[in-house]
Amino acid sequence: MAKPNRETTTETLILSLQRRYPEKGFLIHPAVSFCFSHGTDADADAGGMGVMARERIQKDDVLLVIPEAVRFSTPNVLLCTSRNDNHNHQAMRAMNKKLLQTCSQWQNYFDPQEISLTVSVMHVLRRKSSPHIYSDEDPFVLQAATWPSEEDMKESSMFYWDASKVKEILNQSLLTSNFERRQKVLREIFDGAVLPLLKRDADNFIDSNLSTLAAGSNNDDDDMNGKSEETALWRTFLYAFSLVWSRTHGSPDPELIPLIELFNGNSDRVRNHPNRGSKKDTIINVDLTRGMWPFMRGPMFRDDCNLACSAVYANRDIDKGEELIISYGDLSAGNFMLKYGAVPENLISHHDAKIQMEVSLWCDPSLIPSLDPQDLRVQCLRNRGCPLEEFKSNKWCICDLNADESALELLRCNGQETDAIKHMRQFLILAVLADDEELHRNIATDLIRGRLYAQRVVPLMCQMVDYNLEMLAPGTNATSTEDAKQARHPDTPPWKKAALWARIEYRESLMQWRHAFAKQGTNIHVEDRLEGCAICGRTYPCLKCSRCKEVRYCSRGHQKLDWKNHKIQCVK
């Protein structure tokens, strides 16, 4: 019952905006329909509110215009509060300033502005749960009524997921580390910054519609002035932050734009390459822009009345019944999972999508020498600052491989290494290959004659990737094809679907790096298997040459790229 009711609350918000801006500032195209969606291939929520085209829409039609004054931002919420209670407004301004200062220590994980906006959301949720203290025309309370329930967010927010179950899918990977660290840091922010500021005025920030009493708290002493009040604040904070985290898209000043935030989205990686695929098949069919009223066509506007607005327009012709999909930025499947709690299937299977994300390589323990301090290898490695104990216990990774496609191409085509790869190669030479003469020379000069070991180190680099592929799904023979089949199964829960799609991308990213290492080996006459796509090494999706059935590619684009070389060997 709760999900269909969001259609009603959305309609109420639209009517309120039409009354507030009858001539200037607000516009909605008659072909735009907000409705409950059961999920599409590009639907980030796999079910929930969606925006559909009830009639055919032409390219550059302006579909929705929202004035800046009703964007859900911390300054706008504070301004709205000042109209009703100036004393409370001043207190919230002071609290917000202190909150931003305190949260700066965690800015490597979360933007302090997002925490500030979360507290504003908590305040509005409190007003929403107490109808007697807000106006029927309060735009922020009306917007809050369109949001998914706490139960819905438990499916689509990583902050509600069971970390132990997620780790069973992602295992030893950078994804697991990022997932666990973000969950932990969010709790640290609440305990260290949010709770100390809000506990004196908790009633103004607790959503009474949430089931706020702590599970199992039956003691009379554990009332709203004690532990259960803290639990209620945490519950509201977690719900509010999950909304903010999944509905802001990396802008310098985070905000929730009413109605626009209800559009489902996808990564820019599914935008078709101009030389591959048809423009009419582009999954992302609408774009967001900013300007002044009125908007004319597409992103073009004319400043008639100094009224700042956001607008959504069609970037191509859109057929009747098609879902309107907006861009969420250039996100990998793994980052999409962490941000939105889901992964659109076509982010993995789209013919032109780049399957590549940042990965980390943990060191194969069999490649680490004994920790005897008298061992020359150990002395050399410690002189270089290698944390051997941490490598051996998999607490630290030995190499970070970023998602920069140019770095992979430079290695594949020119043998040009990043600093991280260079350090890993030197580690392997000292840990496994170097003889005593080389080790003594390294202790004396801190230099390595890398060319002497160029052929022999390549298999070890491939072995390092193989170890990480095994650690991604230990004790199984899981492949990307099998993971995709499981992710598509209707009985697979949403969190697991997202984790499986992310695992596919992680595996394929490792395979591409392995392919690049192995290809360098073939250039210096080192035999090693070259699996997957002949160009990049991906194993999913897998397309065979239609003539010889021998060579595999991940996409039509890579098949075209390799045809000049392959046609010489290709036979009917």
UniProtKB/TrEMBL annotation:
InterPro entries: SET_dom, SET_dom_sf, SETD3_SETD6_MTase, Znf_MYND
Keywords on record: Metal-binding, Zinc, Zinc-finger
Chain ranges of the MYND-type domain: 533-570
Protein's UniProt keywords contain Zinc-finger: yes
Pfam family, one: zf-MYND
SET domain span: 30-329
Keyword Zinc found: yes
SUPFAM superfamilies referenced in this protein's UniProt entry, alphabetically: HIT/MYND zinc finger-like, SET domain
Protein name per Swiss-Prot or TrEMBL: MYND-type domain-containing protein
Species this protein is from: Attheya septentrionalis
